[in-house]
Amino acid sequence: MPATHGADEDVDWPAAEAAWGTRFPSDFIAFMGRFGAGSINGEASILLPMPKPGLQWDPAEMAEETDNARQMWVAEGGRSAFDVDPESIIAWGVAGGSDILCWLTSDPDPDRWPVLVCGRHTADSFAVYPYGMAEFLFRLCSDEFDVSPVSITFWDGGHLSFVHWRKAQRRWQEGRNPETGEPDPYAGEFTD
């Protein structure tokens, strides 16, 4: 996936780690440095570890999606299925079908955290994958799962693209589709 429309997010990692009370996986740190937060094919959004001040497009906030995943975990019996406290869940992304992509943080080494998918319209509400974030995304983008771990058809074999949230915001404000850059009669309609 080319980083053409990515950007170094320039995250203050010590501040993010202090806020979250943990280090982050090295693949997530590298992803933020190469791509930043934004959208893959308009179907999955990678979240910022800390909110950015001022007007912004996507992504949703990591704290908000973590709270959503933890509430879902409690409401739909995640602990009984995996015996993990909801505090061990941190969201790093969301998929277009309202699925929340998370880490299970019970291992003290963040590079060993597996991916947890909190699925809204998947066969199981919760599924754990023994990969880090980058490998999970690679497998998702390569269509390597027998059954899709997310609620949508993520990849149709075509071109993969990443669009940083700032680029998507500029496109929208210019009246273009945030993902493709093509003219969009509805883009910019709700801006100030």
UniProtKB/TrEMBL annotation:
Organism: Streptomyces amritsarensis
Pfam families for this protein: SMI1_KNR4
Protein known as: SMI1/KNR4 family protein
All copies of domain Knr4/Smi1-like, residue ranges: 12-128
SUPFAM superfamilies tied to this protein: SMI1/KNR4-like (SSF160631)
Region (Disordered): 172-192
